[in-house]
Amino acid sequence: MENLHDKRKVYEKSQLIESEIKQNPIEQFRDWFLEASESPNISEANAMAISTIEDDGCPRTRMVLLKAYTYEGFIFYTNYDSKKGKAIEKNHKACLHFFWPSLERQVIIKANLSRISENLSDGYFHSRPKGSQLGAMVSPQSQVIPNRGFLEEKLAELEKQYQNEEIPRPENWGGYLAKPYEIEFWQGRPNRLHDRIVYTLDELDWVVSRLAP
């Protein structure tokens, strides 16, 4: 057994206090996200973990990329027939998580998910590189396949088929909007007395609270 007891880090880069935060959590997220995006030590500030509940009751977590955020919520894209897509259709609640270690920050978002409109999914799909569009058509995401050659052969076929044609968005591929009802901002602090500020939606208003670390 490897002993990890001495692997420690002192958190002291910033603080999160009530007098300096935004009253709307999306605005607070925007400020933090911009800092993360501009940080030379963070390659993908929009990388987020999303946790859904499987049929056996166990959460499954995977990394996806945030593609947009508005005052309504957070948008990402996926295959609707994937494990995450099927889980979301059965249980519309999910947890999103951003971790920016070089800033000593986390954001944890509990949200209700719904599909975005088809025209919005179309617009984003056709803005992607052609290889990514074909990849969405090629992969039966989360299904068992015989080998990698299965994907490469199918990709070669579609590259030839759509060499001079627009690629249609697959009907089973599109975006989800995660509408938050709770957002927690975590800022590392010395002596493990971290700052935790949580925004909870109460009908139309956000209630701000501090949690013990």
TrEMBL record:
Domain Pyridoxamine 5'-phosphate oxidase N-terminal: 42-160
Reactions the enzyme catalyzes: pyridoxamine 5'-phosphate + O2 + H2O = pyridoxal 5'-phosphate + H2O2 + NH4(+); pyridoxine 5'-phosphate + O2 = pyridoxal 5'-phosphate + H2O2
Bound cofactor: record note: Binds 1 FMN per subunit.
Domain of life, source organism: Bacteria
GO molecular function list: FMN binding; pyridoxamine phosphate oxidase activity
Keyword annotations of the record: Flavoprotein, FMN, Oxidoreductase, Pyridoxine biosynthesis
Residues passing through the membrane, by range: none
Binding site for FMN: 62-67, 77-78, 83-84, 106, 141-142, 186, 196
EC code(s) of this entry: 1.4.3.5
PROSITE patterns: PYRIDOX_OXIDASE (PS01064)
GO biological process: pyridoxine biosynthetic process
Enzyme's top EC category: oxidoreductase
Cross-referenced InterPro entries: Pyridox_Oxase, Pyridox_Oxase_CS, Pyridox_Oxase_N, Pyridoxamine_oxidase_dimer_C, Split_barrel_FMN-bd
Positions bound to substrate: R8, K9, V10, Y11, K67, Y124, R128, S132, R192, L193, H194
Chain ranges of the Pyridoxine 5'-phosphate oxidase dimerisation C-terminal domain: 173-213
Family, as annotated: Belongs to the pyridoxamine 5'-phosphate oxidase family.
Self-association state and partner proteins as the record states: Homodimer.
Protein name as it appears in the record: Pyridoxine/pyridoxamine 5'-phosphate oxidase
Organism: Chryseobacterium fistulae
